[in-house]
Amino acid sequence: MTNVKDSRNEEYGWRERWDEYRPSKKGTLGLMVASALVVSWVGFGSGAWMTSAKAEEMASAEVREARTQIAGAWCVDRFLASQDATTRLSELQDLRSRFQRTQYIERGDWSVLPGEARPTRAAAQRCADLLMEMELQIEAEPTNPTEEL
Fold this sequence. Notes:
The radius of gyration is 36 Å and the shape is rod-shaped. The chain has helices at about 15-20, 25-45, 50-80, 85-95, 100-105, 120-135, 145-149. Helix 3 (about 50-80) crosses helix 6 (about 120-135) and helix 5 (about 100-105) crosses helix 6. It folds into 2 domains: about 1-40, no CATH class; about 50-135, no CATH class. It starts with 13 loop residues before the first helix and ends with a helix. It contains 7 helices and no strands. It is mainly α.
């Protein structure tokens, strides 16, 4: 029995053990489940995978934010094009709270978007924030160049 190979014999190396290994169905199934869980955990956790519901939620949030920015800029243009824009801006800047400034913009109907019946609160807030950052310089009335001659 000196030529017989078994796991206790020195001639029986890792290659032979590998060739003769027969995994059980239970072990193979467990390994497959564990691999699927690890891949899912890595993919959804840090691999930037997401469900379609999460993608739709993110897309609609971006659309709302873009619409608010555009509506806010449009509101600022309407505000500045109105009569007495410098007076109204100073009135707006004298208001203390963001809520009061938003109401001021809504009452002036500068945040009413085309096709809508009432002001948009998000646009009014964005408009008030943009106007608070703005400093209008009161332009001196142009002088008549012929008067100076």
